[in-house]
Amino acid sequence: MRRASFILSFIAAVFIATAGEAHAQRKERMPEPKPFLGYEVVDGDTLFFDVLNPSRVYAGRMKGKEWRKFYRLVWNFSKTYPYALVARKLVSEVDSTIEGNDLSRRQKEKYVNNVQKELFDAFEEPMRSMTVSQGQLLMKLIDREVGKSSYSIIKDYKNGIAAGFWQGIAKIFGSDLKKHYDPDGDDSNVEDLVRKWENGEFQDLYFSIFGEYPKRIELPSKYI
Q: pTM value?
């Protein structure tokens, strides 16, 4: 796991290094409200009409601020979970490659550097476009999928000094790289979204909130 952890340290480092600048210039963009309803006048009465797409109904007791928080969580989850799944797959593949080949230390370093460069080329731009809250969620989801906090990942791949540096940067933006994913506590709503994703229900939930299906995250075919 240690050699493969460069994948996740890359994700953490690129996001944390660029999120502050991006967030200062841009707010999260969620779907615009739908246009006004159509209408017609019948015998002097104005009748409004619209076409509703079929949607699954999700019961819940959330309201006000709690509902708005969940609304934003669903939006951010749709933007970040695909990258957490990529991280899980890459860690598994890189571990298998390293463990399955009798590589010398220099060969391992060359392999890691080549893959890291490839990842920068593929993922630097989408990481830069993330907001602070999306980056925080991504760190949680990576912890869930891989089983290690971002702090431990960076410490294992780099060193304690590097991990401490990125932790300090993360703190500035209200994050904590040492914090673990808590499916039964603080992250129970996130865990529920993961289950809906796995059961094929997430798109219906998203549609029931936003009136449209989530946009597909375009990933290079080799990472899907």
A: 0.72
